[in-house]
User: What shape does this take?
Amino acid sequence: MDGREKQERKSRLLFAFAKDFVTAPPISMALLYILHSLLKLAFLCSFWPTVIPLSLNYPAVFNFGDSNSDTGGLVAGKAFPMTQFNGETYFHEPSGRFCDGRLIIDFLMEAMELPYMNPYLESVGSPSFQTGCNFATGGSTILPANAASTNPFSFNLQLSQFFRFKNRALTLLSKDKELQNYLPAEDDFNKALYIFDIGQNDLDRVFYFPVSDEQVVAFISKLMSELNYGMKRLYDAGARNFWVHNTGPLGCLPRIIATFGKKPSNLDEHGCVASHNRAATVFNKKLHDMCLQFLAHSPEANITYVDIFSIKLNLISNYSLYGKQAINHFFSFNVLLQSIRICFQDSSIH
Ligand SMILES: *[C@@H]1O[C@H](CO)[C@@H](O)[C@H](O)[C@H]1NC(C)=O
Ligand SMILES: *[C@@H]1O[C@H](CO)[C@@H](O)[C@H](O)[C@H]1NC(C)=O
Assistant: This one.
């Protein structure tokens, strides 16, 4: 691969990460800001001479994931009982989310001026899928579910659901043009944004069995080939715009700390379970490598890689800096989007 080709490949991997959540980020270092309030992107680049505008302008969004981006899939698909804190403070009615307020995906949809995503599995209330469809369900994994899995809707099944959705939509549209008010147009499938936020449950489960570090690393590699295979299937079907969230600091989840953090020596400087956060870090490194490899084999793809781990770890470890408001917004992207920075971080790509 020559230098120019390499640069082009890099420029197709956009990085998103947040620095400050409350104060405006310093201009000197900033490369690209999402100006949430204006819903416009301005690009300022200090290392890259070319100015490449990026707009969050997609006719549709297809999302694959777990509870981090489930907008009602598990509740619809398994009649999962969710009673407490289910939409009380923001939606003022049960929202099907594993969060009282909005999820990151909801804030992203707002930023794109698109309606909140309907779950594929929702059968009641004639939901519109004109601007996309959400295949995420709480508890889902990258690895295929088996009889013992609590959630059958693993990544491979979510993909099958997507292909079924697409085929069915195109068939129906060819018969009845009026359905375009409810379904994405054929072209929209190619222009859509494909979002992935999955892997946390795979990592979580591995620690309930005795495993060596090597086994964890090998397991993560298996997750990456599964994810890569799925993205490739979408690319082969015409998907071009990918948006990948890396995994958050698993070791900071209260449930994990309660289970694995009883011994103080298991905790790191943030008070989180060190082994789990190390695994999350390895996962993210491999995810990043996988994205680069994917780009190398997919000449027309773009990937935006979002460093959710750093964003959440900052919120958790610096909670006192952000005060009550930030705690309320813990799962909200609002605060993050105001200062998130997307950059062509060539320094971290080898
Ligand atoms: C996406 O990739 C194509 C080439 O494959 C490139 O022309 C285009 O500028 C890229 N878009 C963004 C937003 O980087
Ligand atoms: C916490 O905030 C400080 C000061 O802004 C910053 O240097 C540090 O990186 C933050 N911690 C994390 C884990 O992001």
Observations:
- The CA atoms of residues 44 and 50 lie 9 Å apart.
- The chain has one domain: 3-348.
- Residues 17-53, 326-350 have pLDDT under 50 and may be disordered.
- The domain at 3-348 is CATH 3.40.50 (Rossmann fold).
